[in-house]
Here is the input.
Amino acid sequence: MGKVQERIAAALAAELGSRAGWDEPPGLYWLTVERGEPSLAPAPIPWDAWSLGPPAGVLSAIADGCRGSAGALHSFAPDGLHGAAFFTETWMVIRPSDAAAEIAEAKADARAHRIHQRPDRVEARSMWAVDRAGNVYVAMLRRGIDDVPVTKVEYAGPGRTIRGDIPAALERIVSAVLAVTMPGCR
Here is the structure.
């Protein structure tokens, strides 16, 4: 992993670690990098917008709006924009085994938005980011489990395992705002 990518992952982890409480609203952030140092700044999304549906769904709607209007957020983006990031709290399941049936059940529950009903659920804070090169970042802090956030970075291209509505929406936002074609952008 490159130094800038390491610093971006560390910035996401620091943002999670700086939060004192739980039950915070989601947020979209601009990711800038100046002289190799990343920083995050909130994008101008009204707080009440996040109450319109599940956070990933609202983010996806924002991304779709960017696409249709040649980058509605473009005028609000800072100079030197490197990517976009998203904070949300979520439920997840910590896989106790590699049993195929358990994994399939957890995936089905996630697709059906039933994780919050599972007795083995864990609350987590997460920061996701996509940069202009299509690299994807995630930082996760599981409540009562992790002392420090766990981070992962994956480079653009085939074989990427960080997938889902959030990275896809961030790719569409970055693509629209920066007017660049993202590898794997859908």
Notes: The first helix runs from residue 3 to 17. The chain has one domain: 3-88+126-178. The first strand starts at residue 27 and ends at 34.
